[in-house]
Amino acid sequence: MHELVAAYHAHSALLNEIGINALLALSVWVTLACGQLSLGNMGFMAIAAYASVLLVTRGHWPFFGAALTGAAMAAAAGLLLGWPVLRLRGVFLAIATIGFGEIVRIFAINLPFTGGAEGIAGIPQLVTTAIIYSSLALIAFLLWRLTRSRAGRAFAAIAQDEVAASGLGINPAAYKLAAFAIGAFIAGYAGALAAFSSFFISPSDYSFGRAVDVLAFAVAGGIGSVAGPIAGAALLTLLPEWLRFLQNYRDVVNGAILLLVIIFLPQGVWSIVRRRSAR
Amino acid sequence: MLIQQLVNGLFIGSVYALFALGYTLIFGVLDILNLAHASIFMLGAFTALVLVLKGVPLLVAIAGGALAGGLLGVLLDRVAFWPLRRRQAGPLAPLISSIAVGMIYVGAANGIFGPDVRHFPFDVVRTPTITLGQATFTLAQLAIFLGSLALMVALQALLRYTRFGAAVRAVAENPRAAQLVGIDLEAVYAQTFFIASALGAVAGILFALNFNAVSSVMGSSVELKGLAVIILGGMGSIPGSLLGGLLIGLSEDLSVAYLSSNFRDAIVFAILFLVLIIRPTGLLGQRGFRSA
Amino acid sequence: MHRSIRAFFLISSAALLLGGSIPGPARAASGEAAIGAVLDISGSAGAYGDGQKNGLQLGQDYVNKNGRVHIAFDIEDAASQKAQAVNLFQSFTTGGKVGAIVGPTLSSEAFAADPIAVSAGMPVLGISNTANGVTAMGPCVFRNSLTEAAVVPHALKAVIARYKVKTAAIIYGNDDAFTKTDYEVAKSALDAQHIKIVSTQTFSKGDVDFQAQLTSIKAANPDLVFVGALAVEAGHIVADAHTLGIKANIVGGNGLNSPQVYSLSGGAAEGVVVGAAWAIGAQTPGNLDFVQAYRVRFLKDPDQFAAQAFAAAQIMENVLSAAKSFSPSDVCSAMKTMKPVNTVLGTFSFTSNRDASGDGVVLTVHNGKFVGF
Q: What pTM was computed for the model?
């Protein structure tokens, strides 16, 4: 027990990072479950992170109030973004959302109240590992319930074939917009958690490269279930730390393992656990 | 000042266009977004640098870099896309596997060459400065501009007038029908990757020669610009990537000159966003090379 | 085939989750002081962390050869990522093996990682953090890097005094804390000297094409151009300014004090004036030996990042030989009471705010080398 406590103290930042990355992976997963590839999550994350930090440090709001307000603002931005880009498909949608994310980042650099490139330092440490993981558990549970609901079946039908889905009386535009807003809310909430567990935020935290990493978490973990993105986030966050001994060639092996997962595990890493337990 | 800004914009735009050709060719034929393209851009530049440092003449080094880039492209196809094609995976898996190969390529460059920024010997890259009216540019810039245009014209001619081009167009149009008329799909895919990646490598070499800097992270500065270029010009269109490249280059320079350098990149992405909403096929998307 | 691959993934992911994660810092031998070092050896800041790593390695050998105290730097790569810097700080502070941490490379990493060391009472020695407020984070956060605020005004003043400067332009990176600080420092210094700023241009990290911004600057025809950039971008800016025929005096801060400024720009860097913390040709005790040893071992000139890292080893040598033990609290109190030390940066001492003291040097590029201005 004592060793467990010590291990927690040594690695709590890493645990927090995994939890936040898992939430981000779930935020991409929601839109993927509805057949849409969105890479705008960093924009939503940034909106909620800056909003919640400013509300707490300047407005003296309580953390949860600020985090949920920030996430709601991100969801509103998701609706605003989702509405015009809904008719785009596949990589076109992905590229439009990349553009959105970059525009948010550039505004974060240039707006008067974000601290610009110097960011905002000295953010109070209000988020604990327990808060992150209970949030993750709650959101994962709600998403799991969603997949079992009518809306979840509609998501799956739209992802499968949009035309056929509308033939079944499903309104694809409404569901796609809902998926966008839910994804933006989760990404935003994760952004608030990240800001209040890391002392410091700056625009470079919300770069295109990270959006791509998050997509890789979801796909490598497996998009067939809620557990997949969480498993993917855990594996791919740990991997670079675990491969530290390779020094200069760390990214080569990191990339090779990601490649092997994509090639040999079509359903993602989570499928191993699943098949084992099914036996 | 306007004329100088126009010259600057056309010049950098031609390099963006050459880089974006690789994205657009692969998307046109295989319908996948190849995010490893920027890493081949970078490795092409490193190959040429190593050759030049070994005393190889510059033009031969450029050809060598293009060859290396092409082969790396074929390798990329074999390890990242071919296995997925075989099991008919959805569009997401190739996106991630190309990211993985990009990571491997960049990681390998970082491991082999280190994180330092390298440069060509100055006697290789220094060229006279030309002043024409109000515009100043170097001979190398002029050569890069004309060379990029020539490569794009050559590619267009290759697709339009050769047997190979006809096969590529047929595969882009409908792979199954192309196979029925006896076209070897895998051969066309491999050749497409070779050409697209060789062009990407040449873009990297020209970029590196002009700015005289080669580093393992150099691809990140064109990766997103390239996406903006193909969206603006029209995905899958070769004249489109030329037009898109030049327009993106010009918009960057003109926004610095007349608006604010703070929002230079935001303006590029705003253009991209508007084009996607108003005209998702881009400026020349309808007349893509599928029907060239 | 498939089954064995599945088994591989299963085993490796189990290993990851259970035992893997961060390898702990190497256990120090008795009588040896272990110091953690968190540097960006890969990623976007890799070019700077690389020099730091070389400087620390050279410094470790130098100190251990002196024999006053035995130092083992445990150098880890944060890959220019804030999260990795945080993870490394946490494993160093909780591992119970290191007495202090050197780094991290970027100020933005310091703002996220240093608080972890502060709450654990672990001393931190920044060797390249220049942003305002880094050392204010805690009573054991030190740095040996002179800030832009310390060096830039001197360089500007020197140039303004020598040439008849009436107008100035500024070009700086607006998405990076270091270069943004450059802008603020330069602007207030120029305002204080009543120099009119006729054009202000920005760029982004990693840019290589500065022609658009410089064309605008050229049109404004300033007498002086202040460049707020790190070495790589600065090299390109200097080269582009030369190509476009800009004749104004080019001035910069610590970021420009690197051989890359002239290696990336060829002869274009002649006459560039730099305010910095260290001069490659300085006759301070041991500096020329350091430069020589660095050239022999790494086949290139050291930059300021390498020099400040080497100086960190010299500082830690003095601190550790005065410390009661190598525990973090004893190391911190020894740092607080440290007497001035001879380093390659000159005679070095901390200010009461734990910053580096001194005004730095003003250098200019002459015949492809940095010399006193």
A: 0.88
